[in-house]
Amino acid sequence: MNKVVKDADEAIRGIEDGMTLMLGGFGLCGIPENSIGALVRKKVKGLTCISNNAGVDDFGIGLMLKQRQVKKMISSYVGENAEFERQLLSGELEVELIPQGTLATRCMASGYGMPVIYTPAGVGTEVAEGKETRVFKGKEYLMEYAFDPDFAIVKAWKGDTHGNLIFRATARNFNPMMAMAGKITIAEVEHLVPAGDLDPDQIHTPGIFVHRIFQGKNYENRIEQRTTRKKTA
Amino acid sequence: MLDKDGIAKRIAQELKDGYYVNLGIGIPTLVANYIPRGMNVVLQSENGLLGIGPFPYEGDEDPDLINAGKQTITTVTGSAFFDSAYSFGMIRSGKVDLTVLGAMEVNERGDISNWKIPGKMVKGMGGAMDLVASAKNIIVAMQHVNKSGESKLLPECTLPITGRKCVKRIVTELAVLDVTPQGFRLIERAPGISVEHIRKSTLGKLVVEGDIPEMKLD
């Protein structure tokens, strides 16, 4: 049951050109920083990346875009990345934009072993073009397929040697359902502990879904929009 | 004519005690500043939080704690975190009482466009399509006319649609309007704004019945 690997480079073993990857995170919050770094070093190319966002120019998936490692992005919002926009407009990069809830639920369906979901999001819009629809109780729904990623890469706050994961605050986001969806799931964690140290009642993702886990290092945990208020005297 | 805060103040009057509310980016976010004192309203952030608190004090920012606009925030008493599938489960199953969002265009039937300007802005829809497809009550907060002075309340949307027949009420710098089978029904005027001014600024069909009261903003 020991899922522990040495580091990010060992964890991404087997990821090859042309594969489909899921990467957890919302904006720069809860992204697998160490694994992205390893993918950048490995220079695998032609990847299809399923992730809510595409990072910023110098961080997150943006680093992979800069090296032209990504063939296609499947995301819900990609507004924060100038290089992304350039590649999109020049036709170097393919992009499929899908509603955020549809993205989350298609990930969930993958992990739950269900081939499709029906959602009202996108009915009557260009998202619905070419898709099968059905009416349930008088309301129209789109049929959307589960994903079939080769690898899912997630970031958790704590994890144990069996691969059980606990996320923290809004860094949870897409990570739990993506963890369930990978044929092989890689988890990087800020704190790796021996099995038995985590309270079974507190575990968000049971280790059965995680194939490789490693202690991440040098987390930058970058903030995208730093907003604060002043202490009133 | 109302400023952005005026629009937010007017929308805050639509809140009710016990409401779960999702506020979009832009003017809708400002509504949080005008929740009536003593009223219990829980703000939902679709990236995974119920109970959004104010921005953190300088030095207290937590990179793991952000809102859907990726801004650092805080929690409040009774907050809960959850994953993205849960989040859209709440939205899709109608647990969110009110959704306030911005728009580029709204048409007479309550269709909304707010996610794409072909050839110019292609950033994605984020959670907007899910919200408009499922929310029980959608209020749009927007400017009545665009920067070139053209009406954003139209017979037909010209931009790609985000959702169909979903907008219930629109609050602009000029007016409060409801979407009805007859067209945009004028409910209230902004202080000092005439019905004629609103008529000239509304390209879609405008229904005016009886005396239209001025908004009361204190």
Structure description:
The complex is a heterodimer of chains A (233) and B (218). Chain A has six helices and eleven strands. The model of chain A has no long low-confidence stretch (mean pLDDT 96). In chain A, strands 1, 2, 3, 4, 8, 9, 10 and 11 form an eight-stranded mixed beta sheet that branches. A three-stranded antiparallel beta sheet of chain A has the order 5-7-6. By secondary structure, chain A is of the alpha/beta class. Chain B contains five helices and 13 strands. In chain B, the strands form two sheets. Chain B has a ten-stranded mixed beta sheet. A three-stranded mixed beta sheet of chain B has the order 7-6-9, with no helix packed on it. Chain B has helices spanning 4-12, 27-30, 84-92, 128-134, 195-201, and strands at 20-23, 42-45, 49-53, 74-81, 98-101, 105-107, 112-113, 138-141, 153-154, 169-171, 175-180, 183-189, 206-207. At the A-B interface, helix 5 and helix 6 of A face helix 3 and helix 4 of B.
Quick description:
Chain A has 233 residues and is an alpha/beta fold.
Q: What oligomerization state is this entry in?
A: heterodimer
The count of β-strands of chain B is 13
List segments of chain A where confidence is low: pLDDT < 50 over at least 5 consecutive residues: none
Mean pLDDT level of chain A: 96
User: What general outline of chain A do the C-alpha atoms trace?
Assistant: globular
The largest β sheet of chain A comes out as: 8 strands, mixed
User: Can you write the helix and strand succession of chain B as a string?
Assistant: HEHEEEHEEEHEEEEEHE
How far is it from the N-terminal to the C-terminal residue of chain B, by CA?
A: 15 Å
Note the overall shape of chain B: globular
Distance between the termini of chain A: 55 Å
Measured on Cα atoms, how large is the radius of gyration of chain B?
17 Å
Class of secondary structure makeup of chain A: alpha/beta
> What percent of residues of chain A are in strands?
25-35%
